Amino acid sequence: MIRYTVQGGTKLEGSVSISGAKNAAVAILPATLLVSGPCRIENVPDISDVRLLLEILSDMGAEIRRLSRSTLIIDCSHARNATAPIELVRRIRASYYLIGAELGRFGHAHVAMPGGCNFGVRPIDQHIKGFEAMGAVVEQAGGYVCADVPEGGLRGGHVYLDIVSVGATMNILLAAVLCGGMTIIENCAKEPHIVDLANFLNAMGAQISGAGTDVIKVRGVKKLSGGSYTIIPDQIEAGTYMAAAAAVGGNVLIENVIPKHMDCITAKLREMGAKVTEYDDSIRVESKGRLRRANVKTMPYPGFPTDMQPQIAVCMALADGTSLVTEGIYDNRFRYTAELCRMGASIQVEGRTAVVDGVEKLHGCEVRACDLRAGAAMVIAAMAANGTTTIEDAHYIERGYEDIIGKLTELGAKIRRSEDLDPINEAAAG
Ligand code: EPU
Questions:
Q1: Can 117 be counted among the known catalytic residues?
Q2: What pLDDT is recorded for position 350?
Q3: Which of 350, 385, 330, 368 is nearest to 7 (CA)?
Q4: 10 Å Cβ neighbour count for 209?
Q5: Helix, strand, or coil here: 351?
């Protein structure tokens, strides 16, 4: 059990450097299975989801060398198609990328149904629809997905996604790069990490066009060869530090970001009264006094990201007036609001909308991280609150935030990490 203890009330001052994007890294690592030869990957975030995927790849026979904290060389030339241990696969959502990558590389995939943060039902029917459009035969039984390629291999297919899905778009890309012919994915997701996966695969020799628009075309190639690639900065990690500076107050320079990826967050924080200044690859957030109310609805990129919903809700919980937060992606992403209410927030959830009546102050108490981004929101709330907050189940936070304790301490926060020796909490996440 990992616990954070936060002494609130200190303004954040200084600079913080953003790590590589989690949701790009967790697709690019399985994608190395498709490459014959070593891939040098830079800006890999050192987070527990990445460590877990590296363990799975290593079990499959990948040769992995760490050149520095963020630079890896991964060579899957001699990887075997071993079924990854269910206890690892069920701990992360991104293990579903093994299905597309194994199908593309070996023509057969046998992968346990992925875990993931609990936001309600999270089906993978659109992933399967895409694999089937390429001729794969897919069955789900006993908690596993089993996918096979027919005689003659996968062939290009045409798939129109019923729902804009990040995971389905990336998984279909993975299966398509080495298959014969042209695959067309319509109504696909446009998040920066989709473009990053496509850029990685193209750097290794794939022929993908249209990533970042809602139609992606993949012309299958015979082989991908090794090469070098640098993962983009994490949009959500950057957004979390921006929201922290706005809610807690202070003056923070967030470095190593792509400001264009932050547009919707920048606009919302400006609307709420924070001063946000963009530079070439950094953003400064200054905030003093009370934020103003605003409404937000989460949507696929370039809309406001669902993965920033809990963090912006903390800004709203402390703002002057009543704000509405509407969740447009998941059925149930408001469990954390009960924890914020324990700290004195005034939030009522009605279906997919939370009505947030801003209060002047939150107070420290004992709360838990319900999932990764909810955990980040609790850290922000705790830094803004009067008194001491303890956040239980903080292991969720470490799935997606590299060295959050070190980075916040550099900014002046008073935050401490402790760990119980009894490893009872192995809950799923993603
Ligand atoms: N959906 C379906 N069928 C599918 C796929 C998705 O109904 O086959 C639904 C989902 O249930 C959800 C919506 O479509 O309601 C969007 O889901 P999507 O597939 O886009 O999400 P995901 O691939 O499961 C990734 C991120 C999440 C992030 C979402 C949305 C990874 C590993 N996870 O999940 O990240 O919330 O996209 O942007 O990339 C996080 O980082 O904290 C996190 C939860």
A1: yes
A2: 95
A3: 385
A4: 12
A5: coil
Residue type, 243: A
Residue 157 C-beta-side C-alpha neighbours within 13 Å: 22
Residue-wise pLDDT for 262-301, tens only, equals 999 999 999 999 999 999 999 999 999 999 999 999 999 9
Read off the DSSP letter of residue 384: H
N-term to C-term CA, the chain: 18
Ligand 1 center–CA 162 separation, angstroms: 14
> What is the Å distance from ligand 1's center to 51 Cα?
21
Q: Which strands make up the sheet holding 182-186, listed edge to edge?
A: 158-160, 182-186, 215-219, 207-209
Q: Which ranges of the chain have pLDDT less than 70? A: 116-118, 120, 422-430
Atom of ligand 1 nearest to the CA of 122: 11
H/E element, 226: strand 224-230
Joined tokens for residue 163: 């729902």
The ligand 1 site (C-beta within 6 Å) comprises: 22-23, 26, 93-94, 117, 122-127, 163, 165-168, 189, 306-307, 329-330, 372-373, 400, 430
Sequence-distant (≥ 6) Cβ neighbours of residue 74 within 8 angstroms: 29, 32, 38, 39, 41, 57, 62, 63, 64
Q: What letter would DSSP give residue 173?
A: H
Nearest 5°: the CA angle 193, 195, 201 is: 105
Return the bridge partners of 185, or none: 159, 216
Please state, in angstroms and as integers, the Cα–Cα distance from residue 238 to each residue in 232, 262, 369, 382, 385, following that order: 12, 8, 19, 19, 21
- At residue 429, the pLDDT reads 46
- 149 Cβ neighbours under 8 A, 6+ residues apart: 103, 107, 108, 135, 136, 137
- The answer to whether 250 touches 284, Cβ cutoff 8 Å, is no
Q: How far is the CA of 393 from the centre of ligand 1 (A)?
A: 22
Encoded tokens for 389? 């907050």
